[in-house]
Please model this.
Amino acid sequence: MTDIACPRCGETEELLGERTDDAITVTCESCGTVWDRDLSPRCDTCGSTDVRPAYQAIVEKSRGTQLSMQSVRLVHLCPICDAERLAEYQVSNRPLAPDELPTASGEHPRGT
Ligand SMILES: [Zn+2]
Ligand SMILES: [Zn+2]
Model:
């Protein structure tokens, strides 16, 4: 429980730890990055521990926040299960799009 540093900007002081069910979520108050302090990240799908870190944009759910910076969350992508997203991430070099948007679950045929 020592030497926690922001994986994005290296901040070690302005960090906010918050305990959740079985992990600790850390927020960097310097750059807005959020990550789970999970010592052994693994793929939820296949259980592989050979996962790659990636940043995912966080959707602002409420207005009125004074943070103008873009918050991102550190996630881990499986080179097998998340191959497409991982490739896309590596090419674009930008945070992944949030996955909370209800898309890709069914197309609505456009009426005439
Ligand atoms: Zn930071
Ligand atoms: Zn996997």
